[in-house]
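Z., the sequence and structure:
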Amino acid sequence: QVQLVESGGGLVQAGGSLRLSCAASGRTFTSYGMGWFRQAPGKEREFVSGISQGGVRTYYTDSVKGRFSISRDNAKNTVYLQMNSLKPEDTAVYYCAAGGTAYYSVSSNADHYDYWGQGTQVTVSS
C-alpha cells in the first residue's frame, strides 16, 4: 500500500512557475513508476508526465515539453513536478500516481497506476 500526498499548488500568473511535490508513504517507493496527471473542469483526466522507478526515463505530454520537468528523490520518497512558463490552459487539479511498471518503463495510461493522491489545485491567471 502506498499513500500519496501532493502539495505545492496555488494561484500564479501566466509565465510564472510552481513546483509540485508528492510525498509517498511506505518502504517500496522505489518499486513504483510515478506519474503526474491533471484534470481541468469539464475535461477528462490527462497524463502530464511520468518517471521510471530509478528516475532514468521520463516522459511528457507534448503540451508541457520544454516547460515542465519531473524528478524524484528516492531517499525522500518524493516526486516533483517543476512547472515553468505556466499558461492559463495548465489550470487543473494535478494528481500524483504510483504504478507497478517495469524498471525502465514510463506509462501514460492511467489504468497502469495503482495509487493516487487527492490532488492539488493549480490555477494560472492570464
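The chain has a mean pLDDT of 95. The longest strand covers residues 92-99.

Let me know what you think.
H.
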